[in-house]
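Please go through this chain and its backbone structure tokens and walk me through the local backbone shapes. Keep your notes short.
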Amino acid sequence: MTTCEPGPANHPKLNIAHFAISAIFKNVKNNNKLAEILLVVGDIKMGTGIGRSCPTLMKMSLNQIWGSKVAKNMFCACLLVFPVACVVAPQISAPKPVVVTLPPGTTSAKIQRTLDLLPERGGSVVLSPGTFEIRQPIVLQRDHQTLRGSGMATILHLADGANCPVIILGKPVNHPRSTVKDLRVSDLFIDGNRSHQTHELWRLRGEGSEIRNNGITVQNVSDSQVEHVTCARCRSGGLVTTLGVRRLTVRDLNAFDNEFDGLACYQTEDCLFTGLRLYNNPGAGISLDLAFNHNIVSNAILIANDLGIFMRASRDNRFNNITIRRSQHYGVFMAHSEKPTGRGWQPIPRTECVHNSFTNLMASNCGSAGFRVNNTTCTNNIIVAAHFHDNVQGSFSLVQPNLVNLQ
């Protein structure tokens, strides 16, 4: 007959996460000393009296234990310990990031070779202060690559007659099929030298013939960043996103005196554009089209562009703290696309602007109205806390009343 003495009044708390049972056994013999050891395991704290009170129980087979009767309100603890062979893997430190620094005067071909030779896990190419003459685009087309300058003193100057983009993020083809991830470009001044270029398209035929000569072209890229960059005097746009860009962050972008737009975005979703200073662009400060959806544009100053913001095929975007001044025409211009039919020109489905919100929008001294809605399909757009003044055609120009919701 097996007896157990009463356990302590306060039963210990058993945390099963601290036990790992890795053996199948039938009998436990000669375990008198088990009651003397491991009285504290992790968060399980037991008085020595508990372990010492049950030496007979410790000797019993499991079948006997399961079959024994323990008096009500009595507590017994049986701690079964088995030798465990532990193999501890040696600690291996993670490989250091690969960083290659290039001096000013390095050719664009050598910059490209350096990027292409980075390991599969990625790395950074750092350009020192100085001027780099660009005769072919610098392409980041593999995951985890970074191109970083040393601030505005690092100048990428497009050579006379180069007729190419300065930087491409993504595959440098007309219709990239694979998405490139985790790219970063930062701390550069890009001079597109547009007065010494002869055409807008990179190549006249074949691959590259649909890629324009922007300062930075981003196409089919996700989870990437462009930060602290200036794009000036480019033959097409300053920075352009297209062909399936998602979760891109553009922060602290300056763009001026580009042939068309400072920032242009097409087929772009779930991105953040913040800290923008876009001015003196003959097109728009910001041009949005061809499915610009679910993005945030914030803290932007748009000065002396033809239009502040041009919008088409844009939905569910948020614009916060946007200041527009001295646009040659409208501050904001919304429209849809049309196509000719037997009944005349008709809107193309899903090219309207809907469900966009503007908070703290300021438009002043524009050559036309502060906010123009050009088509009746552009509905359910909200404007909160707008400040419009000194625009030639007033605050709003709506093709029909009540197309915007003022709050």
